[in-house]
Amino acid sequence: MPKVSDQHRADRRRQILDGARAAFARHGYEGATVSRLEAEIGLSRGAIFSYFPSKWAIFYALAQDDQERVFQLILDQGFGAVIRLMAEESPDWLGVYFELIRKLRTDLDLRDEWSNRTPELNQRVTERFRQLQERGEFRRDLPVDAIGEFLGLIIDGVAVHVTAGYPVDTDSLLKLVSAAIAPQ
Amino acid sequence: MPKVSDQHRADRRRQILDGARAAFARHGYEGATVSRLEAEIGLSRGAIFSYFPSKWAIFYALAQDDQERVFQLILDQGFGAVIRLMAEESPDWLGVYFELIRKLRTDLDLRDEWSNRTPELNQRVTERFRQLQERGEFRRDLPVDAIGEFLGLIIDGVAVHVTAGYPVDTDSLLKLVSAAIAPQ
Fold first, then answer.
1. Does A184 reach chain B within 8 Å, measured CB to CB?
2. Are A155 and B155 in contact (CB under 8 A)?
3. Do the Cβ atoms of A68 and A41 come closer than 8 Å?
4. Which end is more exposed in chain B, N or C (fewer Cβ atoms within 10 Å of the end residue's Cβ)?
């Protein structure tokens, strides 16, 4: 039997992730049953779960992709690009995250795993923030972690507004955020 | 038959709201079945639904109470008091709101009703913000609505962090928010 090529495996993995993202957006995390995943992905459960051990593993891989994209965007184009991206994001997809947040509080292992889902990029973003603070582009009267938390909180607030269907005035928001973190 | 006194009605209404809040916090909105509401409130479904037409009406009354409290606190003690209150709020209760946000986007009538659940106080807060801007305590280069939206977004971000169990550094956050909205 010929060995399945790496390219083939990569294509299948992509197909599973794209289909699963659509299924989660349409039905929510809990509502995305295995049958619905099969229908949206176009593969049998046997095929799907030979690539990922569980539904959670598929969702986690999507969340990793999202966080990678966000962190890479911060590194390449700055925080404003992230806010603009989120304002354009599918609200249905963002809504899936809110099914998770109660779970994070009650499951400490999950919360740790979740916070560290892209450890290397996480590290690089923290490092970048530290440099910006040292160079005097961020205010220095607060710990750099407080600034990072603030930006994370803004991202979460935008996610809530986008999911609820409230408009986000990104230009004004970015002016407010810049003033918050600028040297005082 | 003696007429049920107003005091008695008010006490019963309070009993229903307090019990329902506990039931929603424990089981979520969807999970708070009528049986669970009865158990937590200590009244029969007949008694409960003679005060409120539906489970939604009970939840809506609780949300109105919360928003009143938040708006009154802004008027009496300022935005910082709201953030400190939220950081102490029951995360389980706050989590109930996140079951709602998808509904808000897809149900436009609900979204309008939701945004205007305390119209008079809403109006007074907007008026207060306008005064603060005129007096030069808020920056004037942005519309006052943009500042209001920003503060709402911060509240939502804090709600996400509290619900997910992430700590909120309220002192740093309030310094950042002050700098954002201060005259530039």
1. yes
2. no
3. no
4. N
Q: How far is A26 from chain B (nearest CA, A)?
A: 11
Q: What are the structural domains of chain B?
A: 1-52 (1.10.10.60), 59-181 (1.10.357.10)
Residue matched to tokens 């209760």: B93
**A161 lies within 8 A of chain B by CB:** yes
DSSP string, B8-52: HHHHHHHHHHHHHHHHHHHHHHHH--HHHHHHHHTS-HHHHHHH-
Position of tokens 């609820």? A164
How many angstroms separate the CA atoms of A154 and A105, rounded? 20
CA distance A46 to A38: 10
Q: B160, B161, B173, B178: which to substitute to probe chain A, counting the most A Cβ within 10 Å?
A: B160
3-state secondary structure of B54: coil
Range A72-78 contact pairs with CB under 8 angstroms and sequence separation of 24 or more: A72/A121, A74/A125, A74/A128, A75/A121, A75/A124, A75/A125, A75/A128
Interface test with A, best of B150, B158, B181, B184 (most A CBs within 10 A): B150
Per residue in A47-87, pLDDT (tens digit) is 999 999 999 999 999 999 999 999 999 999 999 999 999 99
Distance CA A63, CA A43 (A): 21
Residues of chain B positioned with their CB less than 8 A from the CB of A177 = 180
Strands (E), A111-181: none
> What digits encode the pLDDT tens for the residues B101-159?
988 988 999 999 999 999 999 999 999 999 999 999 999 999 999 999 999 999 999 99
Compute how many other C-beta atoms are within 10 angstroms of the C-beta atom of residue A29. Answer: 17
Does the ipTM exceed 0.85? yes
A positions 81-120 inside 8 Å of B (CB) = 91-92, 95, 98, 101-102, 104-106, 111
Could you tell me if B30 lies within 8 Å of chain A, comparing CB atoms?
no
Q: How many CB atoms are located within 10 Å of the residue A49 CB? A: 17
Q: Residue type at B20? A: A
